[in-house]
Design brief:
Its main location: membrane. With 177 residues, the protein is of the alpha+beta class. The chain is 50% helix and 13% strand.
């Protein structure tokens, strides 16, 4: 009987240790799994933030914005992107889609030369040109919002040639909402 009690106590102690160990492993597994889940809606992961910062995006009131003034400038009355400028947009698009960023907004802009209607149309064509390249880089076209803002949001003085050149641009925005 004494051996039976000793064996019973041994099994009970062993079972408690086993349950404690199993609970600890499960908690650790849940904690690790939490680190690997996709970010909640509207949140960017540390990897996504790192790529945005590496590519030159800055946080604005609109979201993470890359003003393509230094990356993609358009000539006067131009809406085509070719050569190095196209390769740059493709590289940025692949970097963003590579870290799971799925939705973008592309805002086209113009300088103030010409009518408001013409500049509106031109800004849409510029944004569409960038959106096509982003789709080629792996984004679903339905996940790219395109806006033409015409001459409504200059970033530089339109009274100078250099300022007008800076205003002929496209911005790529990653929303944080």
């Amino acid at each position: 009987m004494r051996n039976h009690m000793h064996a019973s106590r041994f099994l009970t102690d062993h079972r408690i240790r086993w349950q404690s160990w199993l609970a600890a492993v499960m908690l650790a597994g849940l904690a690790l799994a939490g680190c690997q889940t996709a970010p909640r809606e509207g949140r960017l992961s540390p990897a996504q933030l790192a790529v945005l910062q590496q590519e030159g995006f800055t946080l604005t009131g609109e979201g993470w914005e890359l003003g393509l003034t230094d990356k993609v400038l358009f000539g006067f009355n131009e809406d085509l992107i070719e050569g190095d400028r196209a390769a740059n947009v493709l590289r940025i698009g692949r970097a963003l889609s590579g870290v799971g960023i799925e939705r973008l907004r592309v805002d086209g802009h113009t300088d103030d030369a010409g009518s408001a209607e013409y500049n509106q149309s031109l800004s849409v064509r510029r944004a569409e040109a960038v959106a096509r390249l982003l789709a080629d880089a792996g984004f679903t076209r339905d996940n790219i919002e395109v806006r033409g803002l015409g001459k409504s949001r200059p970033v530089a003085d339109n009274r100078t040639a250099a300022g007008r050149a800076e205003n002929r641009r496209v911005a790529i925005i990653v929303s944080v909402d």
